[in-house]
Amino acid sequence: MSLESKRLAVVLLTIGISVVSLFFFKDKPWSNGNTAAGLLAVSSMLFALYGVWCRDAAIGRLAIFGAAFGIVELIADALCAGVTRTLTYTPAHSAMIWLSPWWMPGAWAIVAMQIGYLGSALTRKFGMVRGAVLCSMIGAVNIPFYEEMAYHAHWWAYRLCRMVGHTPIYIIVAEMIIGAALAPLARHVLDTPSTETALKAGLIAGTSTIFGGLVGYGSIEIVLKNAMR
């Protein structure tokens, strides 16, 4: 099995474990931020073991990329929780970093690694533009699934906005923008043997969470709401 195939396998494994775990945690009264932290620990361990076992420096750079992404995402969380007040982490009962649970930057780091890697593979197969569009579509489906299931796992909840189920429409718009940004930036990280490049790319990718949230909220909750009056 090639190194590329092994990377894909570990990415798909972590996604599969996340999906199965969320169905298991769904509507369990004992589930809260601790189950989110546990899932983060499992995914992080799998990536770390793979990276060491296969001596894959590229996955290490992708981890740096994801970590930087997760740190910047704290700003987007603060906008949702503290400015628009559409997001609350009260159900998690977790210790907080700013307005986010302590495990949230790590959780977003894993998502950035997963979606970023898949987006990178798509850009190689279909070209940069079509690959980014496909990754945008993955973001619009995959991450909102996490948003919906997170509500049922008692990790967080949205309110005071237009929603499909328990997922805000503006968040779906935001995730499309995030997915489109992750694909080319993650590919650059995987192709460039530089930790500095990985860090900078992660910081840039992280700003897509802020931009995506502003565009999504502005278009759905401000422009559309005013247009329907």
Summarize the model shown.
The protein is mainly alpha-helical. It has helices spanning 3-25, 33-54, 57-83, 104-126, 128-152, 169-191, 195-227; strands at residues 87-88, 96-97, 100-101, 157-158, 163-164, 167-168. Helix content is 77%, strand content 5%.
> In total, how many beta strands?
6
List SSEs in N-to-C order: HHHEEEHHEEEHH
Number of domains: 1
Strand content: 5-15%
Largest sheet: 2 strands, antiparallel
Structural class: mainly alpha
User: Low-confidence parts lasting 5 or more residues at pLDDT below 50?
Assistant: none
What strand line-up does the widest sheet have? 1-4
- Distance between the amino and carboxyl termini: 58 Å
Shape estimate:
globular
Number of helices: 7
Provide the gyration radius in Å. Answer: 17 Å
The whole-number mean of residue pLDDT values reads: 94
Bin the helical content: over 70%
